[in-house]
Amino acid sequence: MSRLPLLAARVLVVAAALAAWELWTKAAGSAYFLPPSAIFRAMYHQWFAGPAGHLWLTPDATANLLPSLARLLVGWAAAGLAGVALGLAIGRLRLFADLAEPIVHFGRAIPAPTLVPVFLIIFPLGTPMEVATIAFGVIWPVLLNTIDGARHVHPGHLETAAAFRLGPVQRLTAVILPSAAPKILAGLRLALSLALVLMIISEFVGSTDGIGREVLVAESNFNVSVMWAAIVLLGLLGVLLNAAFGLVEHRVLAWQRGARPAT
Amino acid sequence: MTSGSRVTENLRRVSLGAVGVLAVLAVTELALWADGASPATFPLPTTVLANAARLTANGGFWAAAGSTMAAWAEAMAITIAIAVPAGALLGLLPQAESALRPVLEFLRPIPSVVLFPLILLIVQDNGRAELAVIVFASVWPVLINTVYGFREVDPAAKETLRGFGFGSLGVAWHVSLPSAAPFIATGVRIAASIAFVVTIAVELIAVGLNGLGAFASQQQGGNNAVAIMLAVAIWCGIIGLVLNVVFVTAERRAFRWHHVLSGTAGTTATAPTATAGAPA
Fold first, then answer.
1. Is B77 on the interface with A (CB under 8 A)?
2. Angle at the Cα of B277 (from A179 to B88), degrees rounded to 5?
3. List of domains in chain A
4. Which of A12, A71, A114, A122 to mutate to probe the B interface, most B CBs <10 Å?
5. CATH class for the domain made up of B43-276
C-alpha cells in the first residue's frame, strides 16, 4: 500500500470506529458505555474549557493534569539519569558488572507495585512517594538497555580511540555514549510508557491530586463521563509522549543513519 | 573456550555476584545500625530476611500467593485465547493490520489499571474486573509478537505447501503457525511478567481482593510493617524470577530447532521484544 491511500485508509478506519461506537452506544443507551461525542464533551468541560490566558486549561486541569505530568517526567528523568550512569559503569567495568549483576536482575524482578506500601510509609504522602514509585519502576529498562549498549561498543571504534589517545572522558562522550545511544533511547522510550502506568498506580494508592485521583473521585460519585474522559486522555497522552520522544530520538540519532558500519 | 576455563569463568561470576550481594547487605546493615535509624521505617536487612523466612510459615501469606497466582494463570489463559487468534488474523491480513494500527496505538498506552473503577462499575465483581484489567495489559505483547511472527513466515515454505494443494487455512495451520510459534512464545513470556505486576497492582488498589498486593498493604499500621512488606517484595521478586526462568527454559526446549535454523541462539526470537516489551 503506498503512503497516501494508507493514510486515507487509517483515517477512514478511525472515523468508522468512532462512528460505530457512537451509533452503538446511542442505540444501547447504556449508562456505562458513553458515545465518543459525550466523552469529548466531558474532556472539554473538565480540562480544556479555560480562558486563553491559561492556555485554555481549566482550574481542574492545572490542579490535576499538571502535577501528574510533572511527577511522571521527574520520576522518569531521575530514573533515566541514574539508569544511564549505572548502566555505563556496569557495561564498561567488568569487575563492577560481576559484582552488580545478580542485584540488578533481582531488583528488576521485583514488581514496583509491591513496594508502594513501603514507599507510603517511608516517603511523605503525595509527590515524593509517587516519584519514588515511578523512578523505581522505570529504572530497569533504562539500566538493562544501557548495560547492553555500553557492553557492545564496536571494538574497532575503541581501538581507534586508543590510537588517538583519547582520555577516559572523551572516550565516554565521543565513542561509548554515541554507540550505546540507540539502545539507551529504546530503554528510555519503554520507561516513558511504563512511567504513565506507575503514575496512575501511585495516584490511586496515595494522592490528593492528579489524574488517578480524579478517576477515584469520579468513581465515588458514579461520574462515568469523567472516568471515560480520563481513559481517553491517558490514551492520547501516551500517543503524544511516544510521538514527542520519537521526534527527539530521530534528531539525536540523525548522524547514525548511513554513517553506521555494518556490524 | 575449553570447558575448564568456562567452569572457572562461571565460578568467578557466581562468587563475585555473591560478594556483591553480601557487600550491599552488610553496608546497608552497618549504615542503618550506625545511623540509629528507626527500625520501624528502615528495618535492618537481617530483620527483613528473617521476616521473609518467617513468611513461609504464615498460612495467610500462602493463601495470598495462591490467589495471586490463580488470577495470574486465568488471565494468561484468556490473554493467549484472545491475542493469538487476533494476532494471527492481523498477521495474515497486512492491509487490515496497517489500517487498524492507529486504533491499536491509541489503546496500547492506556494504563490498564485506570480501567479498573469503570470495569468494576460495569461488571460489579472484583474478581472479574481484576481479570479484565490484567488481560488488557498483557494482551499487547502477545498480539504484536504474533502479528510479527505470522508476517515473517518464509514465503517459499508457503508456496511449497500451496503447490501441494493446501488452501490458505491449511497453509496458515501447517506453515505459518509453527513458524510463528517462537515469536508467540516470546510474547507470552513478556506478557507473563506484565500480568504478574498488574495482578499485584490491582490487588493493591481494589478493596476486598485477596492476593500478595492486598497482603502487603494489610500490614499497614501493624508492628514490623515495613519489614514484612519488604519481605513480601522479596518473595514477589523470587516468583518473578522463577516465572521468567520457567518460560525461558520452556522456550529453549520447545524451539531448539528455531535457534538452530536461525543460527544465533535466540536473537531472532527475542528481536521483537524491544518494541513489544511495552507498558503494563
1. no
2. 120
3. 72-255 (1.10.3720.10)
4. A114
5. mainly alpha
